[in-house]
Amino acid sequence: MSERKERRGLGRGLSALMADIDAGPEEEGAEASRRPEAMVPIERIEANPDQPRRSFGVESLEELAGSIAQRGIIQPLILRRHPEKEDYFQIVAGERRWRAAQMAQLHEVPAIVRAFDDIEVLEVAIIENIQRADLNPVDEAAGYRQLMDRFGHTQEKMAEALGKSRSHIANALRLLNLPQDVQGHLAEGRLSAGHARALVATDNASELAQQIIRRGLSVRETETLARKPEKQKARKSSATEKDADTRALENELSAALGLRVSVDHRSDGAGGRMTISYRSLDQLDELCRQLAGG
């Protein structure tokens, strides 16, 4: 029973799906390109209506069409039998190549046909989008989140199958905690991923982002700017003497986690804040692993 549920949640497995779509770049003589199983008439192919990618740049399509007109399609499309139309096919991966092939006026395209179900088709489409070289950090992070939320994939599983480090996946996902306006700056290139990561833990990320863009700050300068409010808070907190029980609790937590822990009670006794400080991404990864029970 549990085995059936796991197979349903993970589809055919992330690694197996990656093996079908990770065929290398669309370059002449690419060693990673696959040998097509069939040449399929282009008019018998339809796009996947659930394809998460909706925009295809006209200029990049025209450039690819020119390359295809000269050299043909090196990396075959991945198709499945159309679920509703006999003798028709639906795109699993390669819609951009299919569109460019039409612009190049090809009559048929090389293809590999796989028996994917609807869930696996969506999963492959998300993975293919994540592998795009021109993907902005926000869309990349959103792709990871989709794989985790819809298919139950862990960060470790995705890192292994996608050839990424787990810290890369974790850092990407943290960007989704930023306010929408900051994510917009990041997606449109006004902020880099380094700038954005420095803002994740701040309380005024939107205000700081405007300063960074206006002043043209580097990532290092942004990190310094982001730390200033924390230093001010630390000075303000140290000005208020803590009782012996609170200091003892801080020491116990710091020893257990191996990180500096600060506990600040509200004056009305109704709540407070616990702050855990880390000095490197490795320490953050270890903290996340402990909090997750790993």
Helix share of residues?
40-55%
Could you tell me the radius of gyration in angstroms?
A: 25 Å
Number of E-type strands: 7
Instruction: Report the order of strands and helices.
Output: HHEEHEEHEHHHHHHHHHEEH
Please count the helical segments: 14
Structural class: alpha/beta
User: How are strands sequenced across the largest beta sheet?
Assistant: 1-5-3-4-2
Instruction: Using the alpha-carbon principal axes, give the shape.
Output: elongated
- Distance between the amino and carboxyl termini: 25 Å
Low-confidence stretches: 1-11, 23-33
Relative strand content: 5-15%
Biggest sheet character: 5 strands, mixed
On the 0 to 100 scale, the average pLDDT is: 79
Give a structural overview:
- The strands form 2 sheets. A 5-stranded mixed beta sheet has the order 1-5-3-4-2. Strands 6-7 form a two-stranded antiparallel sheet.
- It is 53% helix and 12% strand.
- It contains 14 helices and 7 strands.
- The N terminus is likely disordered.
- The protein is elongated and about 80 Å long.
- With 294 residues, the protein is an alpha/beta fold.
- A hairpin with a 6-residue loop joins β6 and β7.
- α3 crosses α4, α6 packs across α8 and α10 packs parallel to α12.
